[in-house]
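Here is one chain, start to finish.
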Amino acid sequence: MKSYHLLFKQSFPISLAEAWDFFSSPNNLAKITPDHMAFTVTSDFDPTQKMYPGMIITYKVSPLFGINLNWMTEITQVEPEQYFIDEQRFGPFKFWHHQHHFKAIPNGVEMTDILTYGLPMGIFGQMAHGLLVKNRLKEIFEFRKRKTIELFGTYH
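Its structure:
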């Protein structure tokens, strides 16, 4: 299986605690996901529940062509206000490993997303990556960047 890697960085003019509270809550994912993806958290859990290793989160999402898919991720590692990692247990990817890192910087916080993923269907998945998937993922993270600027402001 071929794996792919994407890296995204963004800084916010908020505290580390505020960034952690927002990004570590599954309920906020829909706020930073494009509407056309029809992203919905389907897990039944207490919204005040803090993230923990082993936490299972389920979603419905339409990543391509309006096709509605079920997606399940597991939070595999958590170090509060430093990082958390989610991994797909089932969903549209053959492999999905998403690291979310947070670091206090002067007057704000820097967030780094490190995404490693693989696609099903061998050579056809590789072709789909080059034609569609890589650009779609970049669009999603660019949307998140714009949306978080709306929510938190621009870091200077």
